[in-house]
Amino acid sequence: MSRKPIIAGNWKMNLLRSEAKELFEGIKSFVKDYTAPQLPTVVIAPTFTSLCEVSSVKCDCGCGGNKIYVAAQNCHWENSGAYTGEISVAMAKDAGCDYIIIGHSERRQYFSETDEMINKKAKAILAGGLIPIICCGETLGQREAGMTDEHIASQIRAALSGISSEDVAKSVIAYEPIWAIGTGKTCDSAEANRVIKMIRSVVEEVAGSNAADSIRILYGGSVKPSTIEEQMAQSDIDGALVGGASLKADSFNEIIANTMKVAV
Ligand code: 13P
Description:
It is built from twelve helices and eight strands. By secondary structure, it is of the alpha/beta class.
């Protein structure tokens, strides 16, 4: 089964609108030189305030048909209502999003998001016709205590609970070991592949083998141009969720270029 790779940039809480637009244009001017089948699926997740800014330069002028998809970094599971500070799936869609990142470890850690909330968000995103990028990952303490697989499996079972096999197949998971995020310490590629294979086996258990074969599972955590080739050469790693290295066009474009050397 061949799965189209995804290279996604998570800009986190960085860049003003003008900076976001400039960076997005820098990525667009790189991808426009490639024919679509060669390229991985490229997804950019700016802050909420820049969603419309980047969506307006998304595809419609001179990108050679190479759409760059836009993602929100979070959403609420209700359609509307008294939820100060939140945005709904319909609002993200209205701002040009095709994907929404949910369950990032920073949201779990700093904003107390639970597995149950992440499951509600995943269902709302799929019901709204968008694709969730569901993050999971262990702390260093959990890894050292030998609890990595158990912890990740339970995050995935909870996130996918009650979602149809067809919807699971369309979804994206990002395995991001917390100790590798923003630290420069990339998880060993073979180990990341082992955990991702384990995640795929959990997907098979909850949603069947078609979903397990189709779902794209990314690695995230200090991905750089120099690490992506080895990561993409692994059997089960379908792409990357990139933080720091997505904040400069040169390094993000090099990650896309190096992905194309290996995988598409
Ligand atoms: P870094 O690539 O900066 O480690 O961030 C990874 C991440 O959290 C992407 O969501």
